[in-house]
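Archive maintenance. Older records in this collection stored only the sequence; we are now back-filling the structure field for every entry so that each record is complete. The fields below show one back-filled record exactly as it appears after the update. Entries are processed alphabetically, and Nucleotide sugar dehydrogenase is next in the queue.

ARCHIVE ENTRY
Title: Nucleotide sugar dehydrogenase
Organism field: Mycolicibacterium litorale
Length field: 435
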Amino acid sequence: MPITYELPALDAVTDTAQPLQRVGIVGLGYVGLPTALAIAESGVPVLGCDISEARIAAIKSRQVDLLHDKLVSLDRLLESDLLDFTTELTGLSAVDTVLICVPTPVDSHLVPDLTALRAACATVVDAARPGQAIVLTSTTYVGCTRELLVEPLGRRGLVAGRDVFVAFSPERIDPGSPAHLPEQTPRVVGGVTQACATRATQTLIRSAASVHQVSSPEAAELTKLLENTFRAVNIALANEFSDVANNFEVDVMEVISAAATKPYGFMPFRPGPGVGGHCIPCDPHYLLWQLKATKLPSPVTEAAMASIASRPQAVVNRAQELLADSGRPLAGSRILVVGVAYKPAVADVRESPALHIIEELHRRGAEVAFTDAMVDSVWTSSGQLVRENDPAQQDWDLVIAHTLHPTADHAWLATVPLLLDAAYGLPELPQRRVL
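Back-filled structure field:
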């Protein structure tokens, strides 16, 4: 049966394991760095490893996308003996537990790009020593933990559950959200054996509210795919209901808020301009990619991902429609995109729908600019764009609200003549239109 462990029960959970001496984190991106901070804050020394010297330098100079409290924590930990960063991965053989936190994107054909994951796992396997625990946290396909860790370790003569302890525990990081810090969020872990799960729990409990054990790495791998596929399906449904509501001249946000008063059987999702980041636009494709080999259909997931992918195009079509209603063609119009980060309160533009929107507007002949309080510049197929620092002082034929950062001043949007609120966050402005 699944077991959930909480921090007060740590001694009972780990009474057969040696006390943690040091933890190694491979990959210091939006998952690895917060995880490193959370573990170090618990009093366990952490060795953070990343192949990018620029990333290490950015962390040491505090030029990283962290909440203010975590930046304060980073300052304190860098001055202590609890946190060290390096580009040299040879030191991994000296740590008790290794957490692999590297990115797992998809390529332009929506095929999983396993380059970083394979390289990281190979390095960890080469450095592994008897008694060490290895936990994969990167989102991946079902069976990956055995294929990339257990089997190559076995070829080295290290048997999982006897010589080394291998588990999968999917990351649960919500960038920019103070309500979902790692140490306040439960983790799922699936060990190759119970001993593997116990050793992984010993580390993970220090960076999580609780640890819920499942029966195998495969169960934990599929858990992550379900979590983000669930979100993708419901976001696609919210977008669809936005179109439905417009058809009936009803405010979709009013409908969603009303439905959310139901205390059971409903979870609110908001429509928007699309989905970005390296979770929802990517993770379900790991499942779809794997299922192709078995010829098992997944029509709901396929339809949801197709719908999400088409959303930026819908934004551009709506922009063209609004301009036409005001007597202007899209070609030659001056359009401003407000916010290009993939979500509020982060500076991350990976897979951001804004990039696709800007590229398509350019392709149709529009003059496009952007403003974003957290992003200085972006690269698109049309080249580099630098943000407009004072957009209120210019005339725009259309403004598209894409990402509304909570700390940014959006009061000036009340003065623009034509506003497409693709973020559904400006209901008080009378001139706003939605998708």
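Update note: The CA atoms of residues 5 and 211 lie 5 Å apart. Residues 311-433 form a domain with the Rossmann fold fold (CATH 3.40.50.720).
Entry marked complete.
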